[in-house]
User: Fold this.
Amino acid sequence: MSSTTVERGPRGSAHLSIAGRRRVRGVAGLLIGVGGLLLVWTLLSEFVFGEFLLPPPLEIGQIMWEIVRSGAFIEHFVPTILRLGYGFALALLIGFPVGYLMGTSRWWRAFFHDMVMVAGSIPGITYAVMALVILGISIFGPVISVGLVAMPYVAINVAEGLDSVDRRLVQMSDAFRRQRSSVVRHVLIPSVAPFAFAGVRLSFALAWKVEQLTEVFGGSSGVGFQIRREFEDFSIPGMLAWVLLFIVFMILLERFVLARLERYLFRWRLEDKA
Amino acid sequence: MSRAIAAPSTSEGPLAVLARFLRSDGFARLASYLFLVVLWQLVSLYEDRFPGPAETFGFLWIEVTGGAHGGVVRGQFLEPFAATLPRFALGIAISMALGVVTGVVIGGSRLAEALLKDTLLVLVALPAIIWAFLTQMWLGLGDDAVVITTFLSAFPFVAVNVVQGIQAIPRDLRRMSGAFHVPLYRRLRHMQIPAVTGYLFAGFRFAVIIGWNAVLLAEWFSASEGVGWRSRYWYDANRYKGFVGWVILFIAFIVLLDRLVLVRLQRRAFRWRDAQLSATERQAEEIDVGITGA
Amino acid sequence: MAILQVDHLKKTFPAIERRSKSTTAIDDLSFEIGGHVFVSVVGPSGCGKSTLLNIVSGIEEPSSGKVSVSEGERDARLGYVFQEPRLLPWRTVMQNMLYVIEGDNGDPRERATTYLRMVGLQDAGDQFPSQLSGGMQQRVGIARAFSVEPDLLLMDEPFSHLDAITARGLREQLQEIWAQTKKTVLFVTHDITEAVQLSDRVLMLAPGGHLYADVPIDLPRPRRASDTQVATAQAELLRRFETMQEDTDAAGAAEVAS
Assistant:
């Protein structure tokens, strides 16, 4: 896609291409934003809350660094991310068929309608404590919570995506006497995939928050578990450090990894002609 | 519900009527509830600490009618709600006020936006549990902590929506009123506020759903009365049917509030925009705000 | 050995609005096609040519009459080329080729490559359709239909969406492939000159859907658009077409007057 190209102008001086300029502006914007954040934070810490209640950025930064350096970051982020992944896989696994049913049959749409609607309003604490009661302290709590939270989004998006399947491609498949399973596999699923993916992206923020909460209650590892430990140790700086590390990581994950993934999966769309 | 059960014609046998009923939307809905109850029952069989539907509804009956559980503890229904609702309302009110102010500041000035947008993003991303923990460490137990957790969790969402609302005003419109030198007051009244109302309302709906979630969470940890506290009470006593019963109550509350009141109001506020949405898009909007916002 | 037998075929579409009448797309059509022939069906828009193809391919049902498509005992294998290429956009060219021969005997990749070579696209296997021009996509569509090695190949105005130059080139390529593979082709078009250039036999449909004429074209192959003989035949058929138009208009006027 776009890259920072440095072209030689007529007088031999370097100037950035449009894409390059955009990149620089983006980075500058980020720096200003982060700067603003640190500024507000420092002010609040110094003058409003006091250093104990709201530790200054430097202190938190040091702890964050320590967490990363000591490997604790990896030790706890990996399980958290894995569970997130499994949870989304579950959401896709359940969401696709549910969405398919909702999109193709009126009866099934009526069947799932209420469930899908309510699923959106269930408070996170419900998932967290229920998981604890039913499953005890286990990896399945977070996974199932993420799955249940994200599933309605996937289902609704898949249902919508079915509307957009190109009938002409289905006709073509019929003309060539393709089997139903083949049509589903080669036409329906790829048509609907972008929508399902959008469902995942939409529910991403929600899903990781619920996962956090579930881990706080019933985890034995993971970021949520660490947060709970810091809370029990009455350590505000520790808690904030973990949470901020996590948030930054999640934002980066969504903005870069998910976006890249989306671009890769859908690279067949309007490729640049070589 | 469905209108599928029409008056049978004289030539239709009872079997055909039954078939038609089974194929109706109304039955589909009924079937989904039955399915959930059966699923529930199965889960409770699998995990015997987890109460089944019969137990839970039995419990709820006693709790709601103020009977005596096990002959000893008195059921409470109104008291917890009476404690929680004021905190909830206060928290929402403060979120709206603070959220609108923040949103207007950030949305209105490019400098403020550049400086503060990322801060807002981080605030949106902070899970409510963090606020619950923080306020508990700051303020200990009690009302204040709950209200503050509620408003801290909800206000960033209000702010974000307000920012979107303001920025959605097409620049041309803004320029136009500038070109005609429309005085600020009139600008606000006829242009900015109506355009923003829809987003304002969306922000409000977010605030309510997230706020409810936050209130429960906060009460779980820091309160001595209220809905969240009550469900914890039963949980600590290992009476899981009490816990699950209250879960049903608080889900029912927010679902009813959302579906019956908020969605109607939001549709009105967004009338001008919804006119363009297709039926499927509208349905997707309905599920949209899935905010379990932990 | 008739591959395609059409027997008193009729297809009407019910009225859409209450006030309009139902449309007869095909009216008592009967003909037979067999062997290594290239047959065109020509007619103005709205005379049911595409409907005929849809019925033959099984996408639509006739209102009455019979269509039988068979190779001896069994049902004939069909290939179809549409007006738009109708390639799966999320699959590469090669994957698109493989999609239609899934489950057949022999080495599918080899077969696909062979047919891609016939249209000159043997190196495009790894590209996505969006990376190809319209003409190239259509060539893939043609290769795809031929690769099925069908008993009957149906083509629905395959060049109508292309510019004249590309279309001319593709017509020549089509003749080459057809000569090489010896298939039975049923080719629908509104362009009489195209029909004359490509076919052994032209079925002219009148508006209203009945068979107006069944004209054999007995010219040597390969035929180029610039050949004088081809041009003469084209002019003659055009004249017949104009006559048909006049007759139809006259009939229409008479009906209005009565």
